[in-house]
Specification:
The chain has 178 residues and is mostly helical. Helix content is 71%, strand content 0%.
Length: 178
């Protein structure tokens, strides 16, 4: 893990609140919710970069005023009379392009993978069936739990298909067509 990835994970930790709640409330499957989470993280990162850029430009203008240079007055009446906003416009930062590139960034993908990994329905079901406490918490009788646990290493049978279908729906989301 690089320093950049660590900083990104901090950003993920700070932004977890509303973004995760919105994703959870979407009722999307795990993978669709993961994509929504990635979009939320990228939106938050780009918004933060825009805010910091504007703040830096304002600070730069204030520093110039401190030494007697007033950009607003220098460019009064011209196209750049809006000060920091005009200066930011002249930087010509394409925030949408940045957003699109971040959505495809391998480092960001690695960080998201740590926070929200890609799952396989078969692995999720196998993991659940190998956790007797989780099955007991769901109210299953001890005999069913013992039977499920003893079959974990075996292949899937036709009686497992409904469970696999449900696991796929949870991982991939509901099917678009039934």
């Amino acid at each position: 893990m690089t320093e950049g990835d660590g900083a990104l994970l901090v950003a993920l930790d700070r932004g977890e609140g509303l973004g995760v709640v919105r994703v959870r409330e979407s009722r999307a499957g795990h993978h669709r919710a993961r994509a929504l989470f990635l979009e939320q993280v990228v939106d938050d990162l780009v918004s933060e970069l825009e805010r910091q850029t504007s703040q830096e430009i304002t600070g730069y203008e204030e520093d110039l005023k401190g030494i007697g240079i007033d950009l607003d007055r220098m460019f009064a009446g011209g196209p750049a009379s809006a000060g920091a906003d005009a200066f930011a416009d002249e930087l010509d930062i394409d925030w949408e392009l940045l957003r699109d590139e971040l959505l495809e960034d391998p480092g960001l993908e690695r960080a998201i993978e740590k926070a929200w990994p890609v799952l396989r329905a078969e692995d999720v079901l196998r993991g659940l069936l190998s956790e007797p406490d989780a099955l007991a918490g769901a109210g299953l009788p001890a005999g069913v739990i013992a039977s499920a646990g003893s079959r974990v290493g075996e292949g899937w049978s036709s009686t497992d298909l409904p469970l696999l279908d449900e696991a796929r729906a949870l991982v991939n989301g509901p099917p678009e067509k039934v």
